[in-house]
Write a structure and sequence with these properties.
Shape: elongated
Number of strands: 16
CATH superfamily of the largest domain: Creatinase/methionine aminopeptidase superfamily
Bound molecules: zinc ion
Structural class: alpha+beta
Number of domains: 2
Number of helices: 10
Strand content: 15-25%
Oligomer: single chain
Distance between the termini: 55 Å
Radius of gyration: 23 Å
């Protein structure tokens, strides 16, 4: 049972948003499937599955009970998998109507399918990367001393839309000490000369595929420790990208970055995994992390984004999206990777 979200968009191309009205693709293992949708969405839902063999649209009117309809379409026995993001309200209602039936999540199956991108998906991710690269190119003009992070973020959000995104998922503008907080968004802190500024931008394109890129800027000449830490970071990101190849464990890519950073004495300042898969969601499989010994597959697309964070002082992160191939990685982002010095 798959409800609106990335899994449903992946399977049938239907981009509906999750809502309280139940929309559910019911796919028995060995029989034809049904697409249960509210009557008011019938036309759009039908158009999205048109041409997919063996999927019948079943709509329900406002006075009908969609849970009973879904239950009537399920085989009489066997475990049932639901998509990982289905609302708890729907899962619990379906579970109550199916006493004694085992409910599981489908993430292990669909995550593995979605991790292996087809050429059209790589093309969509390449387009997304080009869009965010164009926004990054305009950051030096927006990062002026005297402006607040919120002002810069608002302008950047508009630039994300102008560059072709339909939604700016997150716009991180983290200046000075705020840069040491990896998920700091933007607040009223005013930029001043000497600040390092971490800018991490992610947005969704009309295709449904995401961009995600981080660069670190400095307003004026960097203080010596920022320059030194950034040199380590750049080297670590390079080493991690160089480690990417079909068949290599994801953990080895994380280790390649972490070893460089640890050897330079910043190991405890690199507080997160090295990367995450990206596609119809901004974070998806494969996760580039210690403990993930799964071999990378050709066609996997993920971020490589080590960071160094010195609490109370500054942070730095460098993030590109790469495609794993049989002989190595292809980077999709082409924004220059040096610490970007902005005249202050
Ligand atoms: Zn994140
Ligand atoms: Zn990011
Ligand atoms: Zn990321």
């Amino acid at each position: 049972m798959v409800s609106p979200g990335a899994d449903l968009r992946y399977l049938v191309g239907y981009p509906a948003l999750p809502q309280e009205r139940l929309t559910c693709l019911v796919l028995p293992a060995l029989q034809s499937g049904h697409f249960v949708v509210p009557e008011l969405d019938r036309d759009e839902a039908s158009a999205s599955v048109h041409g997919l063999p063996g999927i019948h649209v079943r709509s329900w009117r406002e006075e009908e009970d969609p849970v009973a309809l879904v239950v009537s379409l399920l085989p009489g026995s066997g475990a049932i998998a639901v998509d990982d993001r289905m609302w708890a309200a729907h899962v619990l209602a379906l579970g109550a109507a199916l006493p004694g039936r085992e409910l599981r999540t489908i993430g292990r199956v669909l995550g593995a399918l979605r991790a292996r991108k087809e050429p059209a998906e790589v093309a969509a991710l390449r387009e997304a990367a080009a869009a965010v690269d164009a926004v990054m190119a305009g950051m030096p003009e927006r990062l002026r001393p005297g402006r607040s992070e919120l002002e810069v973020a608002a302008e950047t959000r508009a630039a994300m839309l102008a560059a072709g995104h339909v939604a700016a998922g997150y716009v991180i503008v983290a200046s000075g000490p705020n840069g040491a907080l990896p998920h700091h968004a933007a607040d009223d802190r005013v930029l001043c000369g000497g600040d390092a500024v971490v800018v991490d931008l992610a947005g969704m394109m009309p295709s449904g595929y995401w961009s995600d890129c981080t660069r670190t800027f400095v307003l004026g000449e960097p203080e010596p420790e920022l320059a030194a830490a950034y040199a380590v970071l750049r080297d670590a990101q390079e080493a991690a990208v160089a480690a990417v190849r079909e068949g290599v464990p994801a953990a080895a890519v994380d280790a390649a970055a972490r070893e460089r950073i640890t050897a330079a004495g910043y190991g405890r300042s690199f507080v997160h995994r090295t990367g995450h898969g990206i596609g119809l969601e901004v974070h998806e499989e494969p996760y580039i992390a210690a403990g993930n010994d799964a071999a990378l597959e050709a066609g996997a697309v993920f971020s490589v984004e080590p960071g160094i964070y010195l609490p109370g002082r500054f942070g730095a992160r460098l993030e590109d999206i790469v495609v794993c191939g049989p002989d190595g990685a292809e980077r999709l982002n082409h924004t220059p990777r040096d610490l970007i010095v902005v005249d202050a």
